[in-house]
Write a structure and sequence with these properties.
It contains seven helices and no strands. The protein has helices spanning 14-24, 27-49, 52-69, 79-112, 116-132, 135-146, 151-155. The radius of gyration is 35 Å and the shape is rod-shaped.
Length: 156
Amino acid sequence: MSEMPALQTTYPSDPDLLTRFAETRDEKAFSTLMQRHWGFVYAIAKRSLTNTALAEDATQQTFITLAKKAKTLRTNRPLCSWLYRTAIHEASNLRRHEMRHQKRNRDYQAISQPDPEPQTQLSAKLHQALSSLSEKDRQLIILRYYQGLTADQIAT
């Protein structure tokens, strides 16, 4: 009986895939890198951000950066190490961006919603002033400014 040849399945290494993508823009090579490392990069981003949507954004941005810098990366260093540093950097950028965005929203809300305290104080002072007037003067003010009557209408 003859022996069956052993099945040899060789998977391209990260440096090989990165070189193929950098030199020929081989989308299949880049897709393989993404499939291989997506979970790892996402886990780093998720631990750093805790917000699922931001972690997904940081993961996508990490791979966009990989695509842009593929030609300049050293293939003699582990890609995982570069991906880790880049994911941390992208997560940090997104965290800062989100914090600025939230601060702008708080600032906008503070500006767009008037402080009720001054209005309350003004109302109290106005009521005090009206109360201190004679009945006749108070009626004139109320008819003119609260009821909107003209001077002729009040005279009638």
